[in-house]
Write a structure and sequence with these properties.
The protein is an alpha/beta fold. The strands form two sheets. A seven-stranded mixed β-sheet has the order 9-8-10-11-7-12-13, sandwiched between helices. A six-stranded antiparallel β-sheet has the order 3-2-1-6-5-4, with helices on one face. The longest helix has 15 residues.
Length: 371
Amino acid sequence: MPRIDSFLKLGLAQGCSDVHLAVGIPPMLRMNGDLLPIKFRDLADTELESYVMEILSDSQKDVFYEGRDLDFSYVAEEGGRFRVNLFHKDTGVGAVFRHIPNEVPTLAKLGVPAVLERFCDYHQGMVLVTGSTGTGKSTTLAAMIDHLNTTRSLNIISLEDPIEFVHPSKKSQVIQRELGTHLTSFADGVRSAMREDPDVILVGEMRDADTISMAMTAAETGHLVLGTLHTTSAVKTIDRIIDALPGELREQTKSFLAQSLKAVVSQVLCKTPDGRGRKAIMEILVNNRAISKLIKTDQSHQIPSQLQMGRDVGMQLMDQALLAAITAKEVDPDDAFRHALDKKRFQRFVTDSSILPTIDEDAPPPSGDLY
């Protein structure tokens, strides 16, 4: 058994989401959002490098010794599955192991808004799930793919870096392809997928102009495209796509977004009140005539007011969602305060006064009203 499996086994026994290994410090576990050290000596450079070399293939070793980072999936001998990022830093090697549950989550189990199920009913267009690193985007998308796989007869092609949740084909056929193993880039993966009679294409990360452009083409030509971006709100997502493509394509990109962007889900993870888990809280945009017009006329800054007023079709601002979760006792109010945009409206719920900043009472509040 590779020696690194001992740390992974300990992490799984503790219920952690991530195991961090880095030279000069002891191994650390991510527990419900907090990073905690385990009782172990500081890891030496040659020691940690010897650990990770035991789980790499010859080709992966060649890539790593060239000075490049590695992203790959790893299955420990005792059954745990992990997404791994292996990197170089100033003192030597570092690695992060993200635990991937064997069971694919369902939308119901995640407790996400019901409107996400409706997004799975689209037959074409683009649905984006966005958020910072580690906010559960892959988990939400996995649950959406599972819903499609369970309820519709489709050809689903999932392009990932690396493959995380493994989807056995149910009512649908699910084809999972991995960057670096089965394809050279996401853009090439989308290009190939369009020749493979797809109904749904999942793009693990729309990280460059070529990938975004190919994903847009797929969405415009009769496919449902699911994708992710590292953006933290619906407005920032729209602006990122427009800014990512060449200036001469700006009008074409806005036209695409106005017509083919179906929805944007931007999420954060908040601790539950007992501190033993985390729940995804989501800002949700559902494209309608009003939002389409704002995109076309470069008035995306007015989109938040449409989200605020669009509750009847499932839309909500992040602060609205956080406030509702506090009221329902689904999240820790102190953690919700940290994620809130208009913090004044959340001060009355805070239990740890030390996290309250000095707020200028004369400063104008952000536009919109949560009440």
